[in-house]
Amino acid sequence: MQEFIDTFHIDWKLMIAQLINFGIVFLVFYLLAAKPLRKLMQDRGDLISKGVDDAKKNDAMLKATKAEYDEMLVKARVESNKIFQEGQKDLEQLKAETMEKIKKDTDEWQKNRIKQIEIDKNIIVESVKEDIVSLATLAANKIMDEKNK
Amino acid sequence: MATQTENNNIQPIHETTIYAEPVFHVGNFQITNSLLNSWLAVLVIIVFCLALRLKLKQIPSKIQHVFEILLEGALSLCDQVTNDRKITLKIFPIVTSLFIFILVNNWLGLLPIVGSVGYFANEAGHSVFIPLFRAGTADINTTLALSIAIVVASNVFGIIAIGAWKIFNKYVNIKALGGIATKFRKDKNVLIVAPITFFVGILELIGEMAKVASLSFRLFGNVFAGEVLLASMGAIFLYLLPTPFLFLEVFIGLIQALIFSLLAAVYFTIAAQDHEEHGEEDHEKRLAHV
User: Which ranges does the record mark as transmembrane (chain A) (predicted)?
Assistant: First the structure.
């Protein structure tokens, strides 16, 4: 053993010094390089996976929203169609009612008008009759007057 | 200095020694050229880590991106060894800092100033060239210290992970010996199996020492052999001839750092596993089949 120590000049102080050197390297590497670099990579990895998760969630949400939108669009179309149909029906009914009312009103007005015309005609006829009578009377009087002269 | 030595008619000795030479002393403590190089390596690592820390951003720059790729790669490599992300995250800082420390030490040993810048000292009447720098891992003190630290740390990690009693029984298997009394009636084979299991525990203890030896000598041997190889090639022909070997040493430096740190990861993983549990499960399964 002594021969081995003498041949290679083994010195425990040098060994401790080299161990201290290695210890410094270990601490420096761990604290300044490995730990912060790994933390940084871990944080970035987390950030990326969170981003991917968010993107997946957003994609799912977008798909759900699109499906909901499509569904609502179909519903709205059906609803609007129904409203349109009902409106058209109401309009037709209203139109028919209005037409009927107009017809009724027109008929009534026409009837009233005819009645009025009839009355007016009668009045005019009566008046004309009266005038004719008066004129005939007047003429007769005149003729009588001339004869008497 | 060379002129001075020529004047004195003494041929200066310039050879690569198997040990790190002391450059100066602080009291009793001798500062070797390897230790100087290790301090330089520590300084380089601190500067790099500080620069990285200051430039960290949520949206990474190109350099940060490269570091992130390296970090992910290292984590995935560690995962392949441990097969468990939790263990990986626990041992990753120590294994990676070990890799960086060894790699920077190995590569700093290849700089032109290493081995060539130094001074002549008079030792036993000879003028000897003492280089100011020598690769930190080309000194057995460094590799031995790191190996011992790793083997001790792996056992401490094992104690934390599975408990002190189980780790103690891994080496001194009292449980197996105790099993003779409890399992003898059910299974007579325990008389043979228990002492063998106890002996295997002792072998495990010797294995821990072998781990220290293999880890330290593999790294030291490779780096030191590289230095010798480069010095030899330089001695044969200084220009261009060492270049391919320099590239080879860059590659060996990387491979050796990787081997050392991966083996450390393996030791940590083995220490955190409860073999007895698996063994008992297997034994129960076998009995169920019978």
Answer: 12-34
Q: Assess B33–A contact: CB distance below 8 Å, yes or no.
A: no
Look at phi and psi of residue B50 and say left if phi exceeds 0, alpha if psi is from -120 to 50, else beta: alpha
Take residue B279 and report the two structure tokens written for it. 């063994």
Question: DSSP letters of A20-50?
Answer: HHHHHHHHHIIIIIIHHHHHHHHHHHHHHHH
Our CA-based measurement puts residue B276 at a distance from the nearest CA of chain A, in whole angstroms, of 33
Number of domains in chain B: 1
Q: What is the pLDDT of residues A71-81, one digit of tens each?
A: 999 999 999 99
Structural domain including B53 reads 12-289
Which residues 23-42 on chain A approach chain B with CB closer than 8 angstroms?
24-26, 28-30, 32-38, 40-41
DSSP code per residue over B54-123: HT--SS--HHHHHHHHHHHHHHHHHHHHHS-HHHHHHHHHHHHHHHHHHHHHHHHTTSTTTTTSEEEEEE
Q: Which of B253, B36, B48, B210 is nearest to A28 (CA)?
A: B48
Q: Which residues contact A10 (CB under 8 A, 6 or more apart)?
A: A4, B140, B141, B144
Helix axes B33-54, A12-28, angle to 10 degrees: 10
Question: Within the 86-145 window of chain A, which residues sit less than 8 Å (CB to CB) from chain B?
Answer: none
Indicate whether B4 belongs to any domain: no
Is residue B1 domain-resident?
Answer: no
CA angle B128, B130, B135 (to 5 degrees): 145
Nearest to B198 by CA among B226, B231, B225, B175: B175
How many CA atoms are closer than 13 Å to the CA of B44, on its beta-carbon side? Answer: 15
pLDDT tens track for A28-44:
999 998 899 889 888 88
Task: Note whether B229 contacts A: Cβ–Cβ < 8 A.
Answer: no
pTM for the model: 0.75
**Cβ-based neighbours of B48, under 8 Å, separated by 6 or more:** A33
Answer whether A22 touches B (CB < 8 Å): yes
In this structure, is residue B276 part of a structural domain?
yes
pLDDT in tens, B230-283: 888 888 888 888 889 999 999 999 999 999 999 999 999 999 887 665 555 554
